[in-house]
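Archive entry: two folds, one per protein. Generate the first.
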Amino acid sequence: MSAKRKPCPICKKPRREEFHPFCSRGCRDRDLNQWFGDGYAVPGRPASPDEIAKQDWEKQD
């Protein structure tokens, strides 16, 4: 299957070059909203706030 024939990952309609890899601005925005709203996640254990703060502090040295 070629890249041009793959459907929009959100609604499965044909993709449009203008909004690649989506079919429209609406689907592009829905995908972005999923990222902002934690709808997508990378597998792994959650980091504690203490771990994050410690890493940031060590970078300052």
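Generate the second and append.
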Amino acid sequence: MRIGVLTDAETASGFRMAGLEALVAAPEEAAEKLTQMVQSNRYALIAVDERLLKDPNKAVERVMRGRSVPVLLSLPNLMDTFSGGGDAKVYMRRLVRETIGFDIKL
């Protein structure tokens, strides 16, 4: 199983350079793409840009019924979050640790 990211085209490039599978969506198609990602059974963790979906769990609530995987993670848009010079890697590690309970190497 993999880690997937659902985000905008510009941010997706950065995730791909880090070795993650990033899918691109516009806000109007984000819920449908997220549903497809969940149903594919390929992902253990799916991070969703909050600009696309404020509450990814609610968007796929019906599809997730009875499933424990994938874990859905709402992700603040990195362009907004780090425009002030913050450390994206430290932020992501902390966010994942708080969500799933352990560290991953990015």
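Annotation attached to the second fold: Helices lie at 9-17, 30-39, 56-59, 61-64, 78-81, 88-100. DSSP finds six helices and four strands in the chain.
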